[in-house]
Amino acid sequence: MTSPILITGAGQRIGLALAEHFIASGQSIIVTYRTRHAAIDKLEAQGAICLYADFNTDTAINEFITLLKQHCQSLKAVIHNASSWDCEANNPDSAALFDNMMRIHAKAPYLINLAVSELLLAYQQHNQPADIIHLTDYVIEKGSPKHLAYAASKAALENLTKSFAAKYAPYIKVNAIAPSLIIFNEGDDDQYRQKTLKKSLMAIEPGCKEIINSVELLLNSQYITGRSLPVDGGRHLK
To answer: CA-based diameter of the chain, in Å?
Structure first.
Protein backbone atom coordinates (compact mmCIF):
# COMPACT_ATOMS: atom_id res chain seq x y z
CA MET A 1 0.00 0.00 0.00
CA THR A 2 1.25 3.48 -0.82
CA SER A 3 1.65 5.87 2.09
CA PRO A 4 -1.89 6.75 3.19
CA ILE A 5 -3.34 10.03 4.42
CA LEU A 6 -4.91 9.93 7.87
CA ILE A 7 -8.12 11.97 8.28
CA THR A 8 -9.66 12.17 11.74
CA GLY A 9 -13.41 12.59 12.10
CA ALA A 10 -14.28 11.54 8.56
CA GLY A 11 -17.75 10.12 9.07
CA GLN A 12 -19.59 13.22 7.89
CA ARG A 13 -19.38 16.76 6.55
CA ILE A 14 -15.87 18.11 5.77
CA GLY A 15 -14.01 14.99 6.85
CA LEU A 16 -16.19 12.78 4.67
CA ALA A 17 -15.80 15.13 1.69
CA LEU A 18 -12.02 14.97 2.05
CA ALA A 19 -12.10 11.18 2.28
CA GLU A 20 -14.25 10.87 -0.85
CA HIS A 21 -11.98 13.30 -2.70
CA PHE A 22 -8.83 11.32 -1.95
CA ILE A 23 -10.45 7.99 -2.80
CA ALA A 24 -11.57 9.42 -6.15
CA SER A 25 -8.01 10.56 -6.86
CA GLY A 26 -6.55 7.14 -6.07
CA GLN A 27 -4.95 8.15 -2.78
CA SER A 28 -5.10 5.53 -0.03
CA ILE A 29 -6.58 6.79 3.23
CA ILE A 30 -7.10 5.87 6.86
CA VAL A 31 -10.04 7.58 8.55
CA THR A 32 -11.36 7.73 12.09
CA TYR A 33 -14.97 7.89 13.17
CA ARG A 34 -16.78 8.11 16.50
CA THR A 35 -20.29 7.37 15.21
CA ARG A 36 -20.56 4.74 12.51
CA HIS A 37 -22.68 6.52 9.89
CA ALA A 38 -23.63 4.69 6.71
CA ALA A 39 -20.90 6.68 4.97
CA ILE A 40 -18.26 4.68 6.85
CA ASP A 41 -19.55 1.44 5.33
CA LYS A 42 -19.29 3.04 1.90
CA LEU A 43 -15.75 4.26 2.53
CA GLU A 44 -14.70 0.78 3.62
CA ALA A 45 -16.24 -0.71 0.49
CA GLN A 46 -14.12 1.71 -1.53
CA GLY A 47 -10.92 0.59 0.16
CA ALA A 48 -10.50 3.01 3.05
CA ILE A 49 -9.25 1.75 6.40
CA CYS A 50 -11.83 2.98 8.92
CA LEU A 51 -10.85 2.99 12.60
CA TYR A 52 -13.10 3.76 15.54
CA ALA A 53 -11.64 6.50 17.74
CA ASP A 54 -13.08 8.50 20.61
CA PHE A 55 -10.77 11.29 21.72
CA ASN A 56 -12.68 12.04 24.95
CA THR A 57 -10.09 10.33 27.18
CA ASP A 58 -6.31 10.11 27.18
CA THR A 59 -6.54 6.33 27.22
CA ALA A 60 -8.70 6.32 24.09
CA ILE A 61 -6.25 8.60 22.28
CA ASN A 62 -3.33 6.28 23.09
CA GLU A 63 -5.35 3.21 22.13
CA PHE A 64 -6.04 4.78 18.74
CA ILE A 65 -2.34 5.54 18.20
CA THR A 66 -1.47 1.90 18.92
CA LEU A 67 -4.17 0.72 16.52
CA LEU A 68 -3.06 3.12 13.79
CA LYS A 69 0.51 1.81 13.87
CA GLN A 70 -0.82 -1.68 13.21
CA HIS A 71 -2.26 -0.51 9.88
CA CYS A 72 0.58 1.43 8.25
CA GLN A 73 4.34 1.81 8.13
CA SER A 74 4.35 5.36 6.78
CA LEU A 75 2.00 8.31 6.32
CA LYS A 76 1.89 10.92 3.60
CA ALA A 77 -0.15 13.33 5.72
CA VAL A 78 -2.30 13.72 8.81
CA ILE A 79 -5.39 15.92 8.62
CA HIS A 80 -6.79 16.73 12.05
CA ASN A 81 -10.47 17.30 11.37
CA ALA A 82 -12.15 15.64 14.39
CA SER A 83 -14.08 18.29 16.27
CA SER A 84 -16.90 18.96 18.74
CA TRP A 85 -19.00 22.12 18.39
CA ASP A 86 -19.97 22.25 22.07
CA CYS A 87 -20.76 25.31 24.16
CA GLU A 88 -21.22 26.63 27.68
CA ALA A 89 -25.00 26.95 27.30
CA ASN A 90 -25.32 23.16 26.97
CA ASN A 91 -22.87 22.28 29.76
CA PRO A 92 -23.40 23.25 33.41
CA ASP A 93 -20.02 21.66 34.21
CA SER A 94 -17.72 24.29 32.73
CA ALA A 95 -14.56 22.57 33.91
CA ALA A 96 -15.49 19.31 32.17
CA LEU A 97 -16.40 21.20 28.99
CA PHE A 98 -13.07 23.03 28.93
CA ASP A 99 -11.11 19.83 29.50
CA ASN A 100 -13.06 18.02 26.79
CA MET A 101 -12.60 20.79 24.21
CA MET A 102 -8.88 20.96 24.92
CA ARG A 103 -8.52 17.18 24.75
CA ILE A 104 -10.34 16.82 21.43
CA HIS A 105 -8.96 19.89 19.64
CA ALA A 106 -5.47 20.28 21.09
CA LYS A 107 -4.30 17.32 23.18
CA ALA A 108 -5.32 14.62 20.70
CA PRO A 109 -3.55 16.30 17.75
CA TYR A 110 -0.55 17.01 20.00
CA LEU A 111 -0.19 13.39 21.09
CA ILE A 112 -0.89 12.00 17.62
CA ASN A 113 1.65 14.34 15.99
CA LEU A 114 4.32 13.28 18.44
CA ALA A 115 3.51 9.60 18.07
CA VAL A 116 3.34 9.41 14.26
CA SER A 117 6.34 11.57 13.41
CA GLU A 118 8.32 8.43 12.55
CA LEU A 119 5.56 7.37 10.12
CA LEU A 120 5.60 10.78 8.46
CA LEU A 121 9.39 10.80 8.24
CA ALA A 122 9.21 7.40 6.54
CA TYR A 123 7.28 8.99 3.66
CA GLN A 124 9.61 9.52 0.70
CA GLN A 125 8.38 10.53 -2.73
CA HIS A 126 10.36 12.83 -5.05
CA ASN A 127 11.85 14.59 -2.01
CA GLN A 128 8.39 15.90 -1.10
CA PRO A 129 7.96 16.50 2.64
CA ALA A 130 5.09 14.90 4.54
CA ASP A 131 2.29 17.05 5.95
CA ILE A 132 0.28 17.76 9.07
CA ILE A 133 -2.81 19.93 8.61
CA HIS A 134 -4.86 21.20 11.55
CA LEU A 135 -8.48 22.25 10.95
CA THR A 136 -8.98 25.16 13.33
CA ASP A 137 -11.67 27.86 13.09
CA TYR A 138 -12.23 31.50 12.19
CA VAL A 139 -12.90 32.20 15.90
CA ILE A 140 -9.19 31.97 16.69
CA GLU A 141 -8.94 35.59 15.52
CA LYS A 142 -11.58 37.14 17.78
CA GLY A 143 -12.83 34.56 20.27
CA SER A 144 -16.47 33.63 20.83
CA PRO A 145 -18.69 34.71 23.75
CA LYS A 146 -20.98 31.70 23.23
CA HIS A 147 -18.24 29.10 22.66
CA LEU A 148 -15.44 30.18 24.99
CA ALA A 149 -13.85 26.78 25.61
CA TYR A 150 -14.22 25.75 21.97
CA ALA A 151 -12.54 28.95 20.75
CA ALA A 152 -9.71 28.61 23.26
CA SER A 153 -9.03 25.02 22.22
CA LYS A 154 -8.94 25.88 18.53
CA ALA A 155 -6.55 28.75 19.31
CA ALA A 156 -4.31 26.28 21.14
CA LEU A 157 -4.30 24.09 18.03
CA GLU A 158 -3.35 27.09 15.89
CA ASN A 159 -0.39 27.73 18.19
CA LEU A 160 0.65 24.07 18.00
CA THR A 161 0.82 24.56 14.23
CA LYS A 162 3.70 26.98 14.68
CA SER A 163 5.51 24.85 17.25
CA PHE A 164 5.29 21.61 15.27
CA ALA A 165 6.30 23.38 12.06
CA ALA A 166 9.50 24.54 13.73
CA LYS A 167 10.10 21.14 15.35
CA TYR A 168 9.64 19.02 12.23
CA ALA A 169 11.08 21.21 9.46
CA PRO A 170 12.20 20.59 6.79
CA TYR A 171 10.90 17.03 6.54
CA ILE A 172 7.30 17.61 7.65
CA LYS A 173 5.27 20.72 6.80
CA VAL A 174 2.72 21.73 9.42
CA ASN A 175 -0.09 24.14 8.59
CA ALA A 176 -3.62 25.04 9.64
CA ILE A 177 -6.83 25.88 7.84
CA ALA A 178 -9.19 28.25 9.66
CA PRO A 179 -12.68 28.18 8.12
CA SER A 180 -15.81 30.07 9.03
CA LEU A 181 -19.07 28.89 7.46
CA ILE A 182 -18.45 26.05 5.00
CA ILE A 183 -21.72 24.09 4.98
CA PHE A 184 -24.91 24.50 6.99
CA ASN A 185 -26.38 21.75 9.15
CA GLU A 186 -29.60 20.16 7.94
CA GLY A 187 -31.55 21.59 10.87
CA ASP A 188 -30.51 25.22 10.37
CA ASP A 189 -33.59 27.32 9.64
CA ASP A 190 -33.80 30.01 6.99
CA GLN A 191 -33.52 32.87 9.47
CA TYR A 192 -30.27 31.48 10.87
CA ARG A 193 -28.91 30.84 7.38
CA GLN A 194 -29.59 34.37 6.18
CA LYS A 195 -28.10 35.89 9.34
CA THR A 196 -24.97 33.76 8.99
CA LEU A 197 -24.49 34.47 5.29
CA LYS A 198 -24.43 38.20 6.02
CA LYS A 199 -21.41 37.78 8.29
CA SER A 200 -18.97 37.40 5.39
CA LEU A 201 -18.18 39.64 2.43
CA MET A 202 -18.84 36.83 -0.05
CA ALA A 203 -22.22 35.98 1.54
CA ILE A 204 -22.35 32.38 0.27
CA GLU A 205 -22.31 28.83 1.59
CA PRO A 206 -19.09 27.81 -0.18
CA GLY A 207 -19.24 24.05 0.33
CA CYS A 208 -16.55 21.51 1.19
CA LYS A 209 -14.72 22.09 -2.10
CA GLU A 210 -13.15 25.18 -0.55
CA ILE A 211 -11.51 23.06 2.16
CA ILE A 212 -10.50 20.39 -0.36
CA ASN A 213 -8.83 23.06 -2.51
CA SER A 214 -7.05 24.48 0.53
CA VAL A 215 -5.79 21.06 1.60
CA GLU A 216 -4.51 20.34 -1.90
CA LEU A 217 -2.73 23.70 -1.98
CA LEU A 218 -0.86 22.86 1.22
CA LEU A 219 -0.10 19.28 0.18
CA ASN A 220 1.28 20.39 -3.18
CA SER A 221 3.48 23.13 -1.75
CA GLN A 222 7.08 22.44 -0.82
CA TYR A 223 7.49 25.78 0.92
CA ILE A 224 4.47 26.73 3.04
CA THR A 225 4.79 25.74 6.69
CA GLY A 226 3.80 27.15 10.07
CA ARG A 227 0.93 29.12 8.53
CA SER A 228 -2.81 29.31 9.06
CA LEU A 229 -4.85 29.61 5.87
CA PRO A 230 -8.08 31.59 6.44
CA VAL A 231 -11.12 30.33 4.53
CA ASP A 232 -13.66 32.84 5.79
CA GLY A 233 -15.10 34.70 2.82
CA GLY A 234 -13.65 37.99 4.05
CA ARG A 235 -15.48 37.69 7.35
CA HIS A 236 -12.63 39.40 9.17
CA LEU A 237 -13.47 42.64 7.31
CA LYS A 238 -17.15 42.77 8.28
So the answer is: 52
